[in-house]
Amino acid sequence: MSTAAPRTAGPDHLWSVDEHLDDILATVRPLEPIELQLLDAQGCVLVEDVTVPVSLPPFDNSSMDGYAVRVADVAGASERYPAALEVVGDVAAGAAGLLHVGPGQAARIMTGAPLPPGAETVVPVEWTDGGLGEGPATGMRARSLAPEGATGQVHVYRPAGARAHVRAEGSDVRAGDRALAAGTVLGPPQISLLAAIGRGTVRVRPRPRVVVLSTGSELVQPDGELRPGQIYDSNSFALTAAARDAGAIAYRVGAVADDAATLRDTIEDQLVRADLVVTTGGVSVGAYDVVKEALSYTADEDEPGSGVEFRKLAMQPGKPQGFGSIGPDHTPLLALPGNPVSSYVSFELFVRPAIRTLMGLTDVHRPRVRAKLTADRALTSPGGRRQFLRGRYADGTVTPVGGAGSHLVAALAQADALIVVPEDAESVAPGTEVEVVLLG
């Protein structure tokens, strides 16, 4: 399966950010490879090198609409003294049984068509009269409208060197070359290449299926009517979008009320389509922290090793976290705090790397850079905790956005980076070089 057993620690153990992340990444395993049709493999990671079975292009072909000719026949061509050649027919893309171009002859050729025997170069149609005898042409008449264009005489006004406007066989890739390496994420260009070399299926690790659900009786679906004490459910939307951005197939479940039995039943129903479950809310020390109540680790004879351990981390925001596995397949579950900023920061630090690990990627983290802090005053941070502040990064500098409050969704929407304040720093002065996690 995709998980090993997570570590456990005493209830008073204060986990560092790195300890918690290391435990997650040591527990989650890449998904098993499967064979998929090309379009179904978009966004997936290759598990083996792909070798080119046939050269691209597979034959010499024209890169222009024009005339296939011999070099000597157009060597002295000019507008004053054009070369007059006999047109022996058309060569269209996909043509078989090619014409032969002899001395003093030309074949009208289309882009992508094979260079016919005897021809040495291609003259663009704009360098000719197009067989009309009316000076330089701007294009060819459609064959269906003027079939006589494939015969008669054409005047060429400019010379062309050997193999001009000819795409050589194998000039893109040659048979036996490595087309794509194992570990490549398949996007549109990679799928195009696979199709071009004749691969209809490919062996990949599938995109992880991530189920996201939020908890709280106060949560209302957007567009619903708010009653006193209620708020709209934003976390499940944010985390579902973030999971998709990370490469997963993500399913959002409607908010679950503060009832442990209902939560357990909801999660059990969702396991059939989950490689990873993410919850938000209900992980702290309150009387209504339903996720903690429903999923706390207990010895289970039917499902040994299953359950979620709830931890305190030396970080801000996001001190309360939960991690473990549930169900008969030991599906990994990450339980995140309910405050919007805490939830999103926790996703970026812990859930995104887990998703990327399930995909089989080796580089699972957001990029990090060093940047100069620009701010009106020094940043403060609680000692002993690693703080993550929202910021905007540009040209080697980073500027804080909003305050440290974990409820400030509007400020989060303006941020494209996280400013990292280490555990041993309680103040960071403007101009100090800081570590920055890039979110864009």
The end-to-end distance, rounded to whole angstroms, is 32 Å
Overall 3D form: elongated
Please give the largest β-sheet. 7 strands, mixed
Compute the gyration radius: what is it? 32 Å
Secondary structure class reads alpha/beta
Count of strand segments: 29
Strand content: 25-35%
Oligomeric description of these chains: single chain
Number of helices: 7
**Helix proportion of residues, in percent?**
10-25%
Unreliable residue runs: none
Strand order of the largest sheet: 1-19-21-22-18-14-17
Mean of pLDDT: 91
Report on this model:
The protein is α/β, with parallel strands linked by helices. The mean pLDDT is 91. The two termini are 32 Å apart. It has helices at 17-27, 188-196, 235-246, 260-270, 290-295, 340-359, 409-414; strands at residues 14-15, 34-37, 45-46, 50-51, 61-62, 66-69, 83-91, 105-109, 121-124, 152-156, 166-167, 178-180, 201-205, 209-215, 219-220, 231-232, 249-256, 276-280, 307-313, 315-316, 320-326, 331-336, 368-373, 379-380, 386-394, 397-400, 417-421, 427-428, 433-438. The protein is built from 7 helices and 29 strands. The strands form 8 sheets. The protein has a 7-stranded mixed sheet, sandwiched between helices. Helix 1 runs parallel beside helix 6 and helix 3 packs parallel to helix 6.
Key features?
about 30% strand, 29 strands, 7-stranded mixed sheet, 5-stranded mixed sheet, alpha/beta, about 450 residues
List the helices and strands and how they pair.
Blueprint: E1 14-15, H1 17-27, E2 34-37, E3 45-46, E4 50-51, E5 61-62, E6 66-69, E7 83-91, E8 105-109, E9 121-124, E10 152-156, E11 166-167, E12 178-180, H2 188-196, E13 201-205, E14 209-215, E15 219-220, E16 231-232, H3 235-246, E17 249-256, H4 260-270, E18 276-280, H5 290-295, E19 307-313, E20 315-316, E21 320-326, E22 331-336, H6 340-359, E23 368-373, E24 379-380, E25 386-394, E26 397-400, H7 409-414, E27 417-421, E28 427-428, E29 433-438
Parallel strand pairs: 1-19, 7-8, 14-17, 14-18, 15-16, 18-22, 20-25, 23-26
Antiparallel strand pairs: 2-13, 3-13, 4-12, 5-11, 6-8, 6-9, 7-10, 19-21, 21-22, 23-29, 24-28, 25-26, 25-27, 27-29
Helix pairs in contact: 1-6, 3-6
